[in-house]
Design brief:
Double Clp-N motif, Clp_N_dom_sf, single chain, two-stranded parallel ribbon, mainly alpha, elongated
């Protein structure tokens, strides 16, 4: 399947791997694909994301905070307020994770290298091919990856994109516009 990917789309997939690794995540999800699109220098996917107000720093911060932060926000718990309160009582960094012992000790750091794509990311990659075919495109670009992420509605990437007001249908129109302008 990757032979039909444009160089930008291949770079996005490789960058998603690197981003997941740098965040210490064990699997690559749809959220990492979006982060990788934002990290790249070009591509229609990035153009559309930026036009919708999705920015690399904000997206990465949300992933670093974890999905739990979004879940807590949805029930009215402000994680930043909780952190401030705990640090006032127990000191700065009280909630930071302890660094694991170096290899060779009783405990050693496990590799944080992502082992695989999660099911949502696999499905998004598959859907990106279907999207490209439905649009009568011969290759898979970052725009198709973005649409594949949105079409895989259950993934964290799609949920976070919906929080930015992005829907699949509206994004298809934005992609078509961006492709016309790029031609």
């Amino acid at each position: 399947m990757f032979e039909r990917f444009t160089e930008e789309a291949r770079t996005t997939v490789r960058t998603a791997w690197s981003e997941a690794e740098s965040l210490g995540h064990r699997a690559i999800g749809t959220e990492h694909l979006v982060l990788a699109m934002l990290a790249a220098d070009g591509g229609v996917g990035r153009t559309v994301l930026l036009a919708c107000g999705v920015e690399y720093g904000e997206w990465r911060a949300a992933l670093a905070a974890g999905d739990d932060a979004a879940a807590l926000r949805s029930i009215g718990i402000d994680l930043d307020a909780v952190r401030s309160s705990v640090e006032e009582t127990f000191g700065p960094g009280a909630l930071d994770r302890a660094q694991p012992a170096e290899r060779g000790g009783f405990l050693f750091r496990r590799s944080t290298l992502p082992k695989r794509f999660n099911n949502g990311a696999k499905k998004a990659l598959e859907l990106s091919l279907r999207v490209a075919i439905s649009l009568k495109h011969t290759s898979i670009g970052t725009e198709h990856l973005l649409l594949g992420v949105l079409k895989e509605e259950r993934g964290l990437g799609a949920r976070l994109l919906r929080e930015h007001g992005m829907s699949y249908d509206r994004t298809v129109e934005l992609v078509r516009t961006a492709l016309r302008e790029a031609a």
